[in-house]
Specification:
The protein has 2 domains: about 160 residues, Rossmann fold (3-Layer(aba) Sandwich); about 55 residues, no CATH class. Helices cover about 35% and strands about 25% of the residues. The protein has 7 helices and 9 strands, in the order E-H-E-H-E-E-E-E-H-H-E-H-E-H-E-H. Strand 5 and strand 6 form a beta hairpin. Helix 1 crosses helix 2. It is globular, with a radius of gyration of 17 Å. The N and C termini lie far apart (about 35 Å). The mean pLDDT is about 95.
Amino acid sequence: MGKVIEDIALRNRTFIFRDRAHAGEALAEKLKGYKSSGAWVLAIPAGGVPVGFILSKKLKLHFDIILVRKIHIPWNREAGFGAISWDGVALFNEPLLQSLDLTEGEVNRCIADEKENIIKRMRLFRGDKSFPDLRGKTVILVDDGMASGFSMLAAIESVKRRDVKEIVVAVPTGSENAVNLVEPHVDKLVCLNIRSGPIFAVADAYKAWRDLREEDIMAILKGN
């Protein structure tokens, strides 16, 4: 079982962080025991990249990205019924998937669409750069928040295949449901702002929020 670390003063609050950079700084404070430890920070694009970049710089850690994609519901691109990683790990929200009444062909098309998007982003963000050798390493997985937790689960399952020493999830904000879903699968989970209730939006933790473009991610990666 993992251990959840939160800032209890931030429980159920909104508009906590100035922006994603501020969130990365706040996470670094909670994770300063890992400073210069040789751990890898792997950020999930798009929103996790600025958070993870700042975290890695503050703690003098290796930095890279890990590509995962929500498997989107065909008629609602804001929602998904699972997630898939760059190396083919696919996880499904089975109760939701059952309720959607999609055919096997429709599910397969949704998965194929996300695989195509991942291939495109791999070429754009990584080029010929190989994925880091994580054997025996501590890995800190970072996103700007967890709504359902399934994208993070896909990243966790991908990393578990690489014989790592320790898996830490670090997110500025997350729904209580997502935290409960992810916690058993990691060694440590840092979520500063845990929120309960029927509606959760990652953006509500930030005073300044915008969707990031591919160009924004490329600029950060070039500065690494």
